[in-house]
Each structure stands twice: as structure tokens, then as C-alpha cells.
């Protein structure tokens, strides 16, 4: 299935979870947020939330600096 991740088309296996997709984008253990089709997905729901064909997932990583 094709999914848009951070603005780029990606081919993913059927039934992929938000957690699996986030793991392909970043290795950060904390400071990461995910929004599926413009709705924030709580980290506690990442494993149970599946991504479907044509979904849009934004993965954001907090960066410290000044």
C-alpha cells in the first residue's frame, strides 16, 4: 500500500502500525509525535493504530537548541 510519510510517498506492507512507520523514520526514543491524517495519535496507541492505503502520516521530532 502507498502512504504519504512526511510528505513523501512510501510503499508499506498491509497492516503496518504507526509505531512501525515511526521506527522507519527516526531512531529517537523520546520527543517524537505522530499525526495520522491530521489527527495526533497518542504514543500509547501507536502499536494498535494501523495505517491504511493513501493515509498521510507526519512524524515530528523535538529538537533542542536556541
TrEMBL record:
Regions that span the bilayer: none
Superkingdom assignment: Bacteria
InterPro entries: Beta-grasp_dom_sf (IPR012675), Mopterin_synth/thiamin_S_b (IPR016155), Thi_S (IPR010035), ThiS/MoaD-like (IPR003749)
Protein's recorded name: Sulfur carrier protein ThiS
Underlying gene: thiS
